[in-house]
Amino acid sequence: MTKELQNQHEDYYATVIDSVGDGVIVVASSGLITLCNPAAEEITGFSKRQAQGAEFEKLFALETTLRDMVSKTIRTGITISDHENVVVRSTGRITPVAVTCYPLVEGSGKNIGAILTFKDITYIRELEAAIRQADRLSTVGTLAAGLAHEVKNPLGGIKGAAQLLEREFEPESEMLEYTQVMIRETDRIDHIIRELLELASPRRLKLAPINLHKVLGDILLLQRQAVVGREIAFIQHFDPSIPDIMADEEMLTRLFLNLICNAIDAMGVDGRLTVTSRVLSDYRMSQNERRSRMVAIEVGDDGPGIPAGDLENIWTPFFSTKSGGTGLGLSICHKIVSEHRGMIKAESDSGHGTKFTVLLPLVQ
Ligand SMILES: Nc1ncnc2c1ncn2[C@@H]1O[C@H](COP(=O)(O)OP(=O)(O)OP(=O)(O)O)[C@@H](O)[C@H]1O
Ligand SMILES: [Mg+2]
Fold first, then answer.
1. Average pLDDT over the chain, rounded to whole?
2. Given its phi and psi angles, is residue 359 left (phi above 0), alpha (psi -120 to 50 degrees) or beta?
3. pLDDT tens figures, 216-234
4. How confident is the model at residue 350 (pLDDT cuts 50, 70, 90)?
5. Are residues 156 and 111 part of one domain?
6. Residue 330 C-alpha to ligand 1 middle, in angstroms?
7. What's the average model confidence in pLDDT over 103-115?
8. Which of the listed residues 254, 322, 337 should we mutate to test ligand 1's pocket, taking the one with most ligand atoms within 8 A of CB?
9. Domain that holds residue 276
10. Does ligand 1 lie within 6 Å of residue 320's CB atom?
11. How many CB atoms lie within 10 A of CB 110?
12. Is 327 exposed, middle or buried (0-12, 13-18, 19+ CB in 10 A)?
C-alpha cells in the first residue's frame, strides 16, 4: 500500500471512530490510553489531549469498577459488560454509564489491549426515577381519595361542635383556649386532606401564555416580606429572551412558591437564595425523543443541603424533616411539573446548599 493510500485509510478509520455516538477509549496492554473519541471526551470531561498517552489507571483513579474491567479484559481477553453500576465522576458531576469492555485482538490472535465503549444513561436513570415516583403517587392517590371521603365528614362535625362549644363559654373562660386549639387543629387536618386530594386527582390545566419572570418576581417580592429581620439575600438572574410559555399560572405559582419557601426554610438567619432562568435549546427528555427547546428555572440556596440518603425520599408524600411540615410540598411540585410535560430534579451537597432545577417546554 502506498503511503498516501495508507494515510487515507487512517483518516477514514479516525473519522469512523470519531463519528460513533458512544464513548470509545482504547487502552493498550501497557495501560496507556491510545485513543479517545469526542463522545468519550464529552462523557468523561477529559480532552483527547489529556487522555491519549495517559495511564488509564491514573486518569480514572476514582473509577474502581472501570479499572477492574479494563485490567481483567487485558489479562484474560474476555468481553465484560456492566449496565448497572458504573459511574464516571471526572466531570465534577456523576454520570451513570453503561459500559462494555472488549479485548483488542491483533490479526495473529494476540491480545494487545482493551476497547472500552460507554453510553451516558443519565436520561434512562431519570426516566426510571420518574416512573418510580409516578407509581408511588398512584398508590397514594387511591389511598388519599378513600381517606379523604372517610375523614372529611366527621372532621366537619368536630369543627362544628367545637364552634358551638366556643359560644357556650364566657369570653374570659380558660376553656376557650382548648376550643381554639380544636378548631385550629381540625383546620390543619382539613388543609392536609385538601392537599392530598389535589395530589390524587388529575386536573385539567388552564393553559394560557405566562410570563415566567412575572410569576417568579411576584413570589420573590412577597417572600422578601416574609424574611424581614433575617439577612437573606435574594439574587435573581433572568434571561430576558425567554418568551411567554403556555402554562397554568396558578399551578406554576404553587410550584415555585413551594420551592422558594423550602429554600427559605432551609436557611438560618442569613443566606443566599438564587433564582435563575435560561433557555436550553437542545434538551432531550429521553434519548429517543426529538430535541426541543426547554426553559430551565433553578432555585438554589446555601442552606445545610439534603443528606444523600434523603435525596431520593424528598419526592415521597409525607416525607418531611420539619416539625410543622406535611411533606406534600415537593410531591405536589413533581405532579405540577409532570402535568406540564417538564422535569424537576434536586441536587444537593450536604453542607453546600441545594439546587432545584425545573425544566419546562417552551411550547406546550
Ligand atoms: N432547599 C432545601 N434544603 C434542604 N432540605 C430541603 C429543601 N427542600 C426540601 N428539603 C427537604 O425535603 C423535605 C420535603 O419537602 P416538602 O416541601 O415536600 O415538605 P415540607 O417542606 O417538609 O412540608 P410542606 O408540605 O409544608 O411543604 C423537607 O422536609 C426537607 O427535609
Ligand atoms: Mg415544603
1. 88
2. beta
3. 999 999 899 888 889 999 9
4. confident
5. no
6. 7
7. 93
8. 322
9. 208-361
10. yes
11. 10
12. middle
Q: In terms of domains, do 39 and 144 share one?
A: no
CA gap 151, 197 in Å, rounded: 12
Residues 77 and 148 in one domain: no
Q: How far is the CA of 93 from the centre of ligand 2 (A)?
A: 26
**Poorest-confidence range of 88-92, 112-116, 155-159, 276-280?**
88-92
Task: Name the nearest CA neighbour of 112 among 75, 79, 81.
Answer: 75
271 lines ligand 1 (CB under 6 A): no
CA of 56 to the centre of ligand 2 (A): 45
In total, how many domains does the chain have?
3
Residues 194 and 111 in one domain: no
Residue range 306-318: average pLDDT?
Answer: 89
273 lines ligand 1 (CB under 6 A): no
Same domain, 227 and 351: yes
Domain end, chosen from 74, 92, 120, is at 120
317 alpha carbon – ligand 1 mean position (Å): 11
- Atom of ligand 1 lying closest to residue 195 CA: 25
The residue among 131, 157, 361 whose CA lies nearest residue 247 is 361
Domain at 316, CATH number? 3.30.565.10
SS3 145: helix
**Ligand 1 neighbourhood includes 299 CB (under 6 angstroms):** no
